[in-house]
Design a protein that fits this description.
Length: 503
């Protein structure tokens, strides 16, 4: 019985991984007891230990989905009194809009996949230059994120990339385009030549999706609706859409153009794993697919595409004008698409939620760790240090501190903590209005730009890492960090210099 329980624990995860997680769970309470016994602030120290352990589970997401090991750590943190269920629920309440976005918007994009795949397949076939294609993915993701939101755009990127993978895998497995299976993990069915091609194709897809993911950060920092914390900062500062954009522009515009230049250079010189080309015979497969679609498209297919176009236009307008919470707009997209496309069976509706719900559960666990950060004041020493510095150096220090803390935790949480602390300082006449405005800009850019360094720095990156796409294209935590490194270095330096010059 005990042996079976050991085998069942964390399923097919490697034995060494299981041992490490068990070690965490055993050592944490012992270490907390020892630290408190010798008069140290055990809760503060163990809070940092839990944060590092949780990041470890994210880093090894391909060995085991982080929900289970991370969830066990979160439960232990509550049992040890590092946070409470009330605090966790409060964090979830504060981020309800993000959760609703994941539940409904991602599912809504699922029902729009035919339109998205058609558009991006044409783009793939008509743009021969890999550098130009990468640039288009990056810029389009940036523009869309500025007016929509990064998670929605990432959901589109994931759906399109999985669609590309499905088309290739169908042909490489000896099937017809009409028989596109949803089980793409058994690459053993491919012949040796196809396996070699597949590795090149995976690299090609990784490049595009990472350029797109960084693009969501480049555009997301620019406007109120780009990232959840942007709206929070704008609300506290009293800035409307245009004022927010103009105040951020001296930093965000140089960063944007630096990102575009970086995209071109890393593709041209194959830096950090980029520069993978699409093999000519795989391009032939997509050409054949396009011909197949054109020759076999039915009036029903055309009607469905027309419906998807109309709903897509509604989606863009609704999000750009912020007619409702993003998640509620996503729900309306589901209703419109399924109603007019005749998808009324419950099991067909359920398929759309497969991608997002595991990540939604993981995000709730993540908020439990964020609750530990909040309750144990893990970031307070950094905040106090920065506020104690000379006012002229505070914006650049805030940019660095926010960037570092966002990269290891969560940019929405870090922005919330910092903007509230700065607002309190302003209300108590500790800083002037000009200082407050400058620090608000530094907080927004700091939490959005350097946080591309790690997947846990931005929800969109974490969503990509834990999606079903990541294992298909061999996109691990460390590979994401490595591929994002050139962007992280360039964007952070340009952002820092811009803040020193303009603030």
């Amino acid at each position: 019985m005990l042996k079976e329980i050991q085998n069942l624990f964390l399923g097919s995860a490697p034995g060494w991984y299981k041992s490490i997680i068990i070690s965490f769970l055993v050592i944490n309470p012992i270490l907390l007891f020892i630290l408190n016994s010798v008069g140290l602030d055990g809760n503060f120290i163990i809070g940092w230990v839990f944060l590092i352990e949780f990041i470890f589970t994210l880093a090894l997401a391909l060995n085991c989905y982080p929900l289970q090991p991370g969830g066990l750590l979160a439960l232990q943190a509550i049992v040890l009194g590092l946070t409470s269920t009330k605090s966790v629920f409060h964090e979830i309440e504060n981020n309800l809009e993000v959760i609703l976005l994941l539940v409904f918007m991602v599912a809504g994009i699922y029902f729009m996949k035919n339109l998205m795949l058609t558009i991006f397949t044409k783009l793939l076939l008509n743009v021969r230059s890999k550098t130009t294609l990468s640039l288009m993915f990056c810029i389009s993701a940036a523009v869309l994120s500025a007016f929509l939101d990064a998670l929605t755009v990432t959901a589109v990127l994931i759906g399109v990339t999985i669609g590309f993978y499905r088309i290739y895998h169908t042909v490489a497995s000896g099937k017809n385009f009409s028989d596109q299976s949803h089980d793409y993990h058994n690459d053993g069915a491919l012949n040796p030549v196809s396996i070699e091609e597949l590795e090149k194709f995976k690299g090609f897809l990784r490049d595009l999706v990472m350029h797109g993911a960084v693009g969501t950060a480049l555009g997301g920092v620019c406007t109120i609706v780009g990232e959840p914390q942007n709206l929070l900062i704008a609300t506290i500062a009293g800035w409307e859409f245009t004022e927010f954009f103009l105040r951020m522009a001296p930093i965000t515009m140089p960063v944007f153009f630096a990102g575009i230049i970086t995209c071109v250079l890393i593709e041209k010189f194959s830096i950090a794993g980029f520069g993978n080309q699409l093999p000519s015979n795989i391009r032939g497969i997509f050409n054949d697919y396009a011909v197949y679609r054109n020759e076999n498209i039915t009036s029903k297919d055309k009607a469905e595409l027309f419906i998807e176009i109309i709903v897509a236009l509604f989606l863009v307008v609704a999000l750009a004008l912020h007619l409702a919470a993003v998640g509620l707009i996503g729900l309306s997209v589901i209703i419109l698409l399924t109603a007019f496309k005749g998808i009324t069976e419950e099991h067909k509706l359920g398929e759309a939620f497969h991608e997002a719900l595991p990540f939604t559960a993981l995000l709730a666990v993540f908020f439990a760790i964020v609750s530990v950060i909040h309750d144990q004041h893990l970031f307070t020493p950094v905040i106090n240090y920065v506020l104690a510095q000379d006012p002229s150096t505070q914006p650049s220090l805030f940019f660095v501190a926010n960037g570092f803390l966002s990269a290891i935790s969560d940019n929405v949480f870090v922005a919330t903590i910092y903007i509230n602390e700065v607002k309190t300082a302003y209300d108590n006449n500790v800083i002037t209005l000009e200082q407050f405005n400058n620090l608000a800009i530094a907080i927004n850019t700091g939490t959005n730009i350097p946080s591309v360094a790690t997947p846990n720095g931005q929800a969109a990156f974490l969503f990509l890492l834990t999606s079903s796409l990541a294992p298909l294209i061999s996109l691990s935590y460390l590979r994401m960090v490595y591929m994002a490194l050139p962007y992280t270095i360039v964007l952070s330096i340009v952002g820092y210099i811009s803040i020193n010059i303009f603030l």
